[in-house]
Design brief:
Blueprint (H helix, E strand, L loop, with lengths): L1 H9 L5 H13 L12 H14 L8 H13 L1 E2 L13 E2 L29 H13 L9 H9 L19 H14 L7 H9 L18 H14 L8 H9 L18 H12 L7 H10 L18 H13 L8 E2 L4 E2 H4 L17
Antiparallel strand pairs: 1-2, 3-4
Length: 366
């Protein structure tokens, strides 16, 4: 078949030009199946724009386009509602203008939200909005920091976890990580009770060493990353009670690439989730870099570029970005170093890049 013929000619070559072509197309318009993700458009933009940056090609996005993207991001900022008894409860960034609000990047107070009670931020969108602004070279001058931090603090639960939105929703490790990343990027931790957050993470370590979305749940690569990154940003990695089990669990997730859970299929995105966790713990060198690279390259699309989760399937922007990020930890030529805690390049992180050397733990029994 044509597919097999194309695959046969790929070998172990990193298809940089094809990936750039794929990303440029996604930057203009996403395929139809992404329509259901409209409310997450901010995060989809993060995957695409940060992929350009990881490839060292952020200048492929013109200065005028970058300025327009920055304005669009600021237009999604949810500002205080003076008519509300808690004016900052909904503050932060939303993922899209799907409510039909007028374009208002500079917060003209004469332009009011179409539906104030539904115009609420999402903690994950706030995280990716800040990451995007930094990648695009913005100085955060238009961020209402007190409002964002006040809204953030209102999302923390009594057990230390975070909800994604005001008004109630699932509360787990993903959103606790977002809270820590937001606080780190804004340089203000007033929206987090660090002690409660750390206790929630420590109590979520599973019997096998990995970390779950919450206490008494199954360990997972994504939640393990979120937990490790949150502790890393808070300077609390030493709080983990069974560090050797955590490192062992992460290392044992490598098959060729990494699996997200025990007895699950390998998936390219876990080269970031597990790889970044090991990078912060100081043990990424225990991984088989050649096997990671081989699996990731086997998931490249031979015709249109981009990287999928499994070989011989279509690529998407999430797996493309996390695959590129995983290759960064393996020192792939032409890919920029990544800040494992914030999920952006060291170039974009700048002064935020955490210079604390990872502590080496005793893992002699691995």
């Amino acid at each position: 078949s044509t597919w097999c013929s194309l695959k046969a000619h790929m070998g172990d070559e990193f298809e940089r030009a094809k990936h750039l072509r794929f990303l440029k197309q996604c930057l203009k318009v996403l395929p139809g199946p992404y329509a259901s993700q409209e409310s997450n458009r901010m995060t989809l933009a993060y995957f695409v724009v940060s992929s350009f940056d990881v490839l060292g090609e952020i200048d492929q996005i013109s200065a005028s386009d970058r300025a327009q993207y920055i304005d669009w991001i600021y237009a999604q900022q949810v500002h205080p509602d003076p008519s509300s008894p808690n004016p900052t409860a909904l503050c932060g960034f939303r993922g899209t203008p799907f409510l039909g609000d007028a374009f208002n990047p500079n917060h003209n107070p004469d332009i009011q939200p179409a539906s104030p009670e539904y115009n609420k931020s999402n903690i994950a969108m706030t995280y990716t909005a800040l990451a995007l602004l930094r990648i695009l070279g913005d100085d955060f001058a238009r961020i209402n920091r007190p409002a964002v931090l006040s809204g953030l603090g209102g999302l923390q639960q009594p057990d230390g976890s975070y909800a994604p939105v005001a008004g109630g929703a699932e509360c787990d490790m993903r959103f606790l990580f977002c809270a820590c990343a937001i606080s780190d990027m804004l340089g203000d931790w007033s929206g987090i009770d660090k002690e409660a957050a750390t206790t929630f993470i420590v109590n979520s370590q599973s019997y096998d060493g990995g970390i779950a979305q919450g206490p008494l749940q199954e360990a997972h690569g994504g939640s393990t990353y979120c937990a490790v990154a949150a502790l890393y940003l808070m300077g609390s990695l030493s709080s983990v009670k069974r560090m050797d089990d955590l490192v062992r669990w992460c290392v044992h997730r490598q098959v060729t690439g990494f699996q997200g859970r025990i007895n699950k299929a390998v998936d390219t995105c876990y080269s970031f989730w597990i790889g970044a966790a090991l990078q912060m713990l100081g043990y990424h060198s225990l991984c088989d870099y050649n096997a990671i690279r081989s699996y990731s390259l086997s998931c490249q699309h031979p015709a249109i570029g981009g990287i999928s989760k499994w070989p011989d399937t279509f690529p998407d922007v999430l797996h493309t970005y996390f695959s590129l990020s995983g290759l960064s930890f393996c020192n792939e030529p032409g890919i920029l170093p990544l800040d494992p805690a914030l999920g952006i390049t060291m170039r974009a992180a700048g002064d935020w890049a955490n210079a604390r050397p990872p502590k080496q733990y005793d893992v002699s029994t691995l």
